[in-house]
Design a protein that fits this description.
Helices cover about 55% and strands about 0% of the residues. With about 150 residues, the protein is mostly helical. Belongs to the TatB family.
């Protein structure tokens, strides 16, 4: 329950509890807190049991931790009914990055017909404006995109 509390924090809490409640009342306060925590745990366990009972036998393996999105995704990815591991392993990121790099580099090579390419460095001249299409020419229409 208190996995993230270090020894220094624990000592600080104890000193503050002694200062606030005093050494005489501290055992009674600790008993009251423990009793309250115990009642809350009993209430939550009975609520979980009632929910499982109301859901019926088809949800007998239902775990409330599955409601956490991270746990749910991890469980579904481990199940792999959809073949997600094959899809994930089917992508070769290095190969695709190499293809993209080759395509960019081939577009960067200077050609005699391209006025925007710089002939000395092999790179595009970003200071020049791109050529605008003719006024009557419309861009291609993609029916699937609309």
């Amino acid at each position: 329950m208190f996995n993230d509390i270090g020894p220094l924090e624990l000592v600080t809490i104890i000193v503050l509890a002694v200062l606030v409640f005093g050494p005489d009342k501290l055992p009674k306060v600790i008993q009251d807190v423990m009793r309250t925590i115990r009642k809350i745990r009993e209430f939550s366990e009975s609520a979980k049991a009632d929910i499982r009972e109301e859901l019926g036998p088809e949800f007998k393996d239902f775990d409330f931790e599955d409601l956490n999105p991270k746990t749910f995704l991890r469980k579904q990815l481990d199940n792999d009914e959809l073949g997600l591991k094959e899809i994930r392993n089917g992508f070769d990121l290095k190969k695709e990055m190499a293809e993209v790099t080759e395509a960019v580099q081939s577009a960067d090579t200077p050609s005699s017909s391209s006025p925007s390419a710089s002939s000395s460095s092999g790179r595009l001249d970003m200071t020049k404006k791109p050529e605008e299409p003719e006024k009557d020419e419309r861009p291609p229409f993609d029916a699937d995109a609309t």
